[in-house]
Amino acid sequence: MIANLVGRIYAFLLGLLIRWGLPRPVFDFGAMIVAGFVVAIFIALVVLYLIWMERKVSAHIQQRFGPMWTGWHGWLQTIADAVKLLMKEDLTPTNVDKAVFLTAPFVVFVPSIMAYLVIPFSATWIVRDLNIGILYIFAITTLVVIAILMGGWSSNNKYSLLGGMRTAAQIISYEVPLVLSILGVVMLSGTLSMNGIVQAQGKWPWQWYWLPQILGFLIYVTAATAEVNRTPFDLPEGESELVAGFNTEYSGMKFAMFFLAEFANMFLVAAIATTLFLGGWQPFTGLLGFICFMIKSMAVVWLLMVFRWTYPRLRVDQLMDFGWKILVPLSFVNLFATSLIMVLRK
Amino acid sequence: MWPYISGIIKGFWSLLVGMKITVPYLGRRAITIQYPKQKMEMFEAFRGRLALARDRETNKEKCTGCQLCAKACPSACITVTQRKDEEGKRRSEVFEIGMSLCCYCGLCVEACPEDAIVWVRDYEYSVYDRKQLLVDKPTLEAIWRNSLSQFKKEEFNEKVA
Fold first, then answer.
1. Which residues of A60-89 are buried (b: 16+ CB within 10 A; e: fewer)?
2. Which residue of chain A is at minimal alpha-carbon distance from B25?
3. Which residue among A45, B59, B97, B124 sits deepest, i.e. has the most Cβ atoms within 10 Å of its Cβ?
């Protein structure tokens, strides 16, 4: 219904403005800006909720309450924190590489906002259903590593540099099993389009790809945890070793941007997991489908949060061992087994 | 080959074992006391604040002004002078405790032969002005009266009366 409404408004505005002599490319550009704004607002809202949720989950695992005073059970706490970060002095250390230091927080946010464009929130709720959607996402999200490395390098601080370097090593290593683990899904569905993959899965949970691709799903969740730098793979910002890793020198709004991107990426990997393995917006369409999608994604996010508050951090060598000696071979096994079964079943 | 595979399976299993600990904790009730909203009931022997008790039935002063508490006090923060009341009984005239010096040792409470100086289980007694830390007799009695609601009756008879 809402998608219908959006479509009608779009058609109405298109007709009106073109009659008024607005060139089509200009209109398209405007529409893109509006879509980008909508996605950015959506990300901001989701991140606000996720930060609150993270604090609540962590608190309750430790039998605490977490924030309780700002609003009902502290749901306004994130907004209060954001306001506090906005009011802070915008500090730039003396010996940093200024241009890189200042752009890094914004560069880190760009890939996540771009990746959201191809996420099918519901049957028709997708900004642009690219026919290479999943490939696009993995191509784009790899850029995060550049931003983090920019932040770590330009800070001119040994901890930041170490954090940035570790991120580079980690994300590049775990990108391999991540992409290999989703190949099984791509083979089963026969498409790279995000919406196509959801449609290829049936209506009900036992038809979704988590069941035939259980190994792929587990590898995906593990590698995704590493991709978004969350515990037990939080070496880039390991507090006890590196102060705060790549964002040691960042404060105020610039720190908030890194934080925002981190949580946006967390929701992104959960949304991809939902789309690829948990049937996306199935079994409903429209608004109900969107709700379905959000519930599934939040469940995956919840899982990532429980991981964080359960497992201790790995050492760097253990991280590399685990990535290259276990995840990569396992994802190859998954890939071969899937193709073998597909060939035999033909 | 087998150690490799069994290692993976064992590792995965150990992850599940870890989750089995944390996830049930997620469902349990938090044990935090939300302080200004909820207040903790202090235990019986809690040394909160010193107060001057009166007799509960007759509301007569118990303190005889004998100055044993002042002598027992290691930091010499109690000042007591004696007077005689209209019945000719010895009572305290001035009774002051400098709470900024008090070390909460409780020797005055032990020394008191009349059980006149007592502990109350009140723990919210910060003040804005240092002068307020010199607590005089009416205040000490007011503290005791306020604390009465904290005590259950039996406990009161045992401890205070």
1. bbeeebbbbeeeeebebbbeebbeebeeee
2. A61
3. B97
A256 falls within a domain: yes
**pLDDT for residue B161 is more than 60:** no
Contact B119, B109 (CB under 8 A): yes
Residue A65: list chain B partners with CB under 8 A: 30, 32, 34
Provide the terminal-to-terminal Cα distance of chain A, rounded to the nearest Å. 40
Give tens-digit pLDDT for A245-289: 778 888 888 888 888 888 888 999 999 999 888 888 888 877 888
Task: Say what the pLDDT of residue B13 is.
Answer: 92
**Residue A67 forms part of a structural domain:** no
Interval A125-135 mean pLDDT: 82
Nearest to B20 by CA among A270, A273, A311, A274: A311
Inside any domain, residue A134: yes
Residues of A in Cβ contact (< 8 Å) with B25: 60-63
Confirm whether A146 is domain-assigned: yes
Number of domains chain A contains: 1
Strands B78-84 and B90-98: antiparallel
Distance, in Å, from the CA atom of B122 to the CA atom of B15, rounded to the nearest integer, reads: 47
Residue of A331, A199, A235, A219 whose CA lies nearest to A269: A219
Nearest CA in chain A to B7: A326
Residue A254 domain boundaries: 96-345
Please provide the distance, in angstroms rounded to a whole number, between the alpha carbons at the two ends of chain B.
80
How many residues in total does chain A contain?
Answer: 346
Rounded to whole angstroms, the Cα distance separating A54 from A305 reads 6
Contacts of A311 in chain B (CB under 8 A): 15, 18
